[in-house]
Design brief:
By secondary structure, the protein is mainly beta. The chain has one domain (about 1-95): Immunoglobulin-like (Sandwich), CATH 2.60.40. It is built from no helices and 8 strands. The chain has strands at about 1-5, 10-15, 25-30, 35-40, 40-45, 50-55, 75-80, 85-95. The strands form 2 sheets. Strands 1-8-7-3-4 form a 5-stranded mixed β-sheet, with no helix packed on it. Strands 2-6-5 form a 3-stranded antiparallel β-sheet, with no helix packed on it. It is elongated and about 90 Å long.
Length: about 130
């Protein structure tokens, strides 16, 4: 699973594809709305460490109106295609939370502790 922020630009995705060939496009599908967005204006760099780095050029991951498609706390499906084949699939989770050691905390900002004392009253009935 890849973790991205809601920012439309300046993000890159590192993948280990099935084959190291030219990438034609990537498809990102929102699992909530089931809308798919195809991006052909991508830059890809391959390294000798057997992974590829993909980033969307230009205005980034935006819809036809120029708004970012990445919404907070949503899951997306990522598909990386060549001209004839799919070479990579994965899930994307979007959060603006700063990750501690790469871990997402579902309760950040949600839990508040209640302060109370441990005094109690005992009533004796005779």
């Amino acid at each position: 699973m890849k973790i991205l922020t809601t920012s439309a630009t300046g993000q890159s995705i590192k993948i280990i594809p099935r084959s190291f060939v030219a990438v034609n496009n990537i498809v990102i599908r929102d699992e909530v709305t089931n809308e798919s967005y195809t991006y052909s204006n991508i830059s890809t760099s391959f390294t000798n460490n057997n992974y590829a780095t993909i980033s969307v050029s230009g205005s980034g991951m935006v819809d036809s109106s120029g708004n970012t498609i990445l919404k907070e706390n949503r899951f997306y499906n990522l598909t990386v295609n060549t001209s004839s084949d799919t070479i990579y699939r994965d899930k994307i989770f979007v959060t603006n939370q700063s990750l501690t050691n790469g871990n997402y905390d579902i309760n950040t900002g949600e839990y508040t502790s209640i302060s109370f004392d441990d005094e109690y009253i005992t009533i004796w009935v005779i």
